[in-house]
Amino acid sequence: MSREIRQRHRDLLKAETHLHRHGRVGDLSICLVSPSRYQTGMSSLGFQTVYRLLAGSTDIRCERAFLPDRDELAEYRRSGTPLLSLETSTPLAAFDVIAFSTSFEPDYLNIPVILTLSRIPLYAKERSNSHPLIIAGGAAFFINPEPVADFFDAICIGEGEDVVPSLVATLLSPIDNGRRGLLQAFTMIPGMYVPSFYHPRYHNGVLTGYDAEAGAPLPVTRIPVCLEQHEPSASQILTEHTEFGDMFLVEVSRGCPRGCRFCSSGFIYGAFRQQPFDNIVALIDRGLTHRSKVGLVGAAVSDYAGIGRLCRYIVAKGAKVSVSSLRIDRIDSDMLDALIASGHKTISLAPEGGSQRMRDVIRKNLTEAQILAACAMLIDHDILNLKLYFIIGLPGETDGDLDEMISLIETIRAQVIERSRANKRLGEITVSVNPFIPKPFTPFQWCGMEPLPSLEHKVKLLESRLKRLSNVKLKVESLRESYLQALLSRGDRRLSPLLVEMAEGATLKKAAKACGINTESYVQRTIAADELLPWSIIGTADQNMLRCEYERALVGVEH
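Above: the chain's sequence. Below: its structure in C-alpha cell form.
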C-alpha cells in the first residue's frame, strides 16, 4: 500500500472538524463516494447531508472516498493500489455498499474511473453477490440518470432526507434471494430506481419505450420532502481544504419559485420550500463556534422570505455573510447592508437574456429598467465591482440580441464610471457568458443546442465589441465542455460505452467514433413533440405543462 496515499489521508483527517457524532461501529459498511476531488466534493451540502444521515447510525460503518487528484491518481496507478477510503484506507471493493453522491452531469465521466480504480466491474450486470452494491444519488440524477444507469444497481431519485432512512432500513432487513431480492425490495421505496428492471426499446435508433419488470414502477416518482420535518442541510465537516473552507454553509430553501424556461431548478425539486427561520438560526449559532462566516445556500436565496432578517442576525453576531448571485428584483436593503458589512466588494447579478426579447422568451420576468435600477442601487452603496451572468445561444437568438446585450453592458459601465469619478476608485464589470444547454424537465428540453461554429461566432463578436471597454472583463465558459454537458444532459443508456472510452483517456471525438455514436443527434437535434424522452422514466414534472410553456416561448422566438 502506498505510504504517500495513506499520509495524505491522515493529513486531511487531521484538518477536519466534525460537528456531528458519527458511529462507524455497525456491521453494515458503506463508503460514500464523491466523483469530484476532495476540495470540491466536501463542499457539497448534498454530500455532507447524506454523510450525516449515514454516519449518524450506529448500525452503519460509514467512510468516504473521493476522486484522487492528479498526483494521487498517478500514485495509485504507479503503485497498483486499489482506491482506498479516507478514514481507514480500506479498499472500496471491501465495503458492502458504495454510494455515489453526484451533483453535476460532468462528474458522470469520473464514475467509471472510480470503479476501475476500485477493481469493481463497471456494469451492474457483470457483478456478482461478492461485489459491493453500487448505488447513487444527487441532483444530477434528478435530471437524467440514463447515461450512467447501466453502471448502478440502484439510483436514488428522491431527496436524501426521506430516501436514505428507507434505504438503510431495507439494507439492514433480512431479505431472501440475495442481490436480486434486495433490488426488488428497493422498488418499494418511493424515489428508488433500479435500472436493470427497465429495458429500453429502440426503433431506427430512436428510443420508443421502456419495458418494466413486474413490481417496478413506471415512471419512478418521488415526493419532495417537508423541510420543516428535517434538520436543515448544513456543513457537517469543516476543513480549510475545500472551496468554501472559511465558511459554515446552510441551506435556506430548496427549489425555485421562478420557473425560468431554461433552468431545471424550478422544475425538478417540486414546490419552492423554505427552511423555518428558527431552525436556520439554531444551526448558525452552532456553526459560528467554528467559523466567522456563514454561506447561505439555495437556488433562490434572495427569494427566502426572511433573508434580510437572517442577514442582520448573522452580522449582529459579529460574523460575515455570503450568498450566491442575487435576484435582480429581490435585492433586500438589509441583505445588501449585511453583505457590505461582511466586506463584499463584488456582487453578482444574472440578467441571463441579453435583450428584452430573450428575457421574455426564457420567462426571466425582468426589464432593462429593473436591471439598471438594481445596478444603480449597488453602485449607490459603493459596490462598484459587478459580475453579470448572460446566456448566449438561447432559442431564436440573433446578433441583434447580442447588440442589445452589449448596449446594456455599456450603460451599466457608464453608471459605474460616473460613481468611480466621485470616489476616485474605478470599479470593474465581469461579464460571464455561458452557452445555452438544453436541460431535461424544462420547457426547453426539446430544443437543440446551437452548433459550436455559430456559438464561436457569437463569442468573437462579444470579444471584439467588449475589448475596447477598459474596465470590462469577458469570461466565457468552455464551449466544448458545455457541448459535453449537453450530451450528458440529453443522453440515454447508449452513452455508457462512450464514458468508459473517455475514462480510459480518449477524447470525446475519438470515443464517439469508437462507439459509433453521433453526438450531434443528442446535442443539437430538436426533439419532436411525440418522441419519448430518455428521462421520462422519471416522473418529476408535468410534461404537458412543460410543452405548453415551450409553445408559449416559441411565440416570442417567432416574433
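The domain at 3-196 is CATH 3.40.50.2300 (Rossmann fold).
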